[in-house]
Amino acid sequence: MKKLILFFSVLILAATGKGQSLDYARDQFTLGNEAYMKGDYETALNHFLEAEPSTEGLAINYNLGNAYFKLGEIPESILHYERALRFDPSNEDVQYNLSIANDMIADKIEVLPKSKLQIWWKTFRYSLGPDGWAEICIALAFVSVLLFLLYYFSHSTGLRRFGFFGSILTFIFLVLTYTLAVSAENYRYAEKSAIVFTDKVDVKSEPRGGSVNVFVLHAGTKVEILSQEGEWYEVEIGSGAQGWIYQDELRLV
Fold first, then answer.
1. Could you read off the pLDDT of 43-99 as tens digits, one per residue?
2. Are the C-beta atoms of 22 and 13 separated by less than 8 Å?
3. The pTM is what?
4. Which of 229, 218, 224, 230 is nearest to 242 (CA)?
5. Distance (Å, rounded) from C-alpha 12 to C-alpha 148?
6. Residues 214-223 pLDDT 10s
7. Measured distance CA(211)–CA(108) in Å, rounded
8. Which of 51, 149, 152, 230 is deepest in the core (most CB within 10 A)?
9. DSSP 55
């Protein structure tokens, strides 16, 4: 396994109101790191789980994934690596560890190939994350206002022309970066996927137990959720195959 994230500065903390205090969560996170480095993975996991209700983000999920992996709980490990990627899809450490965990599950699904344009767009869209694109939006909004003020108050024809066209161009880039920020945020919270947690699951042709089995999945496999009907999820795997799985067989990413 690659390096454990040790610096709490990269941990995103969020108060839950009813949860533990942020100070307690920070202490548990630190104790978890110390136990992990000593090879006491069970203790490390317990500390990370104590911190989890008051935290969210890359670091806590990455560390939970590492601890579960060391304890041989591969589906749990994959679940938390996938959750970590929600916050930083381009993180190479998480991607590497996730690939190792995926090599240890039963299902070897051939993923449908994507075009170079799709790969480039996904990489570009998530390169800065929603927070990074939002910061650029704020900066562009500030520059756009300054350029408009230059156009409005300047008595120089050249400066007025520069301010006018500059503010329009900056506003166009502002709209584009806002779109990227929303898209990246939707990837984090709106797009639904899940991990199979039952040793063996019969995927059904319809959302009912007596329907035909279309294929079989095993613990640790990731599925994309297309829709929900009652207690059943319509899912799709990387190969494009689709079917229905009872909700208790899955854990949402």
1. 999 999 999 876 778 999 999 999 999 999 999 999 999 999 988 888 899 999 999
2. yes
3. 0.73
4. 224
5. 36
6. 999 999 999 9
7. 25
8. 51
9. B
